[in-house]
Write a structure and sequence with these properties.
- There is one protein chain.
- By secondary structure, this protein is mostly helical.
- One of its GO terms (cellular component) is membrane.
- Keywords: Membrane, Transmembrane, Transmembrane helix.
- It is found in: Membrane.
Length: about 325
């Protein structure tokens, strides 16, 4: 259940791809990854702009946690796709840079499921204990929670760097390697440590999401007076649960991949590429859908920002001097 190793294995499996993929296959896979990055970056930029351009969201813990997740996922996506493309272009990179990329990818990958568990707890308090929600879930406590999430996600894995600094010579960090976690953090005890922490993370997040969402589902059915609103509440909860489940698949993806490779031994590269897209990319598409489209409050402001960007028309007209121009702004 080594999620971090699984991430970097799926992300940087070009060691085998580089030898077996044709130029056309390699080009198509890299093109897919770059297009995915551009698409998600465009969506995330609108979502982030919507949050920061409307102060109404600043004090809402639900949207604070949401925008933290969006920014975290954007960083994770950028780092992993950068390594994916670099593995084709340069094959090997400097160990110091590799350490930086790996640690950022691991930190952000671990943070997403834990952040979603925090969002589940916030929704649980809002629906099951609404009278105390404003008192318990304040903006200050939300930022404290985010700091705590980063602490518990960074500390276990930053020790890999300290162990490597203690066991490897400084010259090692000036060499070039194919950027895989096991090629940089090579001490065998680190593998067992990662497996132990993956089990702990998986168990805590799993029981948190199961308890909170079952409670939310029960309360939503009891309190919803209209069938349509009850159906909408159930659909939202199911989408949340699906997103959490897919993020939690990062803890078990190496095991699932091993099983699939055993069942379909002739499709190793396709399995790894599909596994990366499903486990690490698809959940990043669900966040804007759940909070951007289905959330009426956020969707209202998101449409304003989107159409403002569309209406922002800059027209450069020829003048007597090439250095002079006139700019026309039309903003909603």
């Amino acid at each position: 259940m080594n999620s971090s190793a699984g991430l970097l294995g799926n992300m940087s499996y070009a060691l085998q791809i580089f030898e077996r993929d044709t130029f056309t296959t390699a080009f198509i896979k890299n093109l897919i990854m770059v297009l995915v990055w551009f698409s998600l970056s465009y969506i995330n930029s609108i979502v982030v702009a919507t949050f920061f351009m409307n102060r109404v969201f600043y004090g809402n813990p639900r949207y604070i946690l949401f925008i933290h997740m969006v920014i975290n996922d954007a960083i994770q996506l950028t780092v992993t796709i950068t390594l994916f493309v670099l593995s084709y272009i340069f094959y090997t990179i400097n160990v110091s840079f590799c350490c930086f990329f790996i640690l950022v990818a691991v930190f952000t990958t671990r943070t997403s499921p834990v952040n979603l568990a925090g969002m589940a707890i916030e929704r649980y308090i809002a629906i099951c204990n609404p009278l105390r929600h404003a008192q318990i879930c304040t903006a200050h406590r939300t930022y404290t929670l985010i700091g705590f999430i980063w602490f518990i996600c960074v500390v276990p894995d930053i020790t890999d760097l300290f162990v490597t600094l203690a066991t490897e010579s400084l010259s090692f960090f000036h060499t070039r390697v194919f950027c895989l976690r096991q090629n940089v953090f090579k001490d065998p005890i680190l593998t067992y440590k990662r497996q132990a922490f993956d089990i702990i993370y998986f168990s805590c997040v799993f029981f948190t999401l199961v308890y909170t969402y079952l409670r939310i589902l029960f309360v939503a059915r009891v309190l919803s007076s209209e069938k349509q609103s009850a159906q909408r509440a159930r659909n939202t909860i199911l989408l949340h649960g699906g997103q959490l489940l897919m993020c939690m698949m990062s803890y078990t993806s190496p095991t699932v991949e091993t099983v699939l490779r055993f069942i379909l031994p002739g499709h190793v590269l396709e399995i790894r590429f599909a596994n990366y897209l499903i486990v690490y990319i698809l959940p990043r598409f669900l966040s804007p859908i759940i909070y951007g489209v289905r959330d009426k409050e956020f969707w209202k402001y998101l449409k304003r920002v989107y159409y403002s960007c569309k209406q922002y028309d800059i027209q450069i007209k020829p003048t007597e001097s090439p250095l002079l121009f006139s700019v026309t702004y039309s903003i909603l």
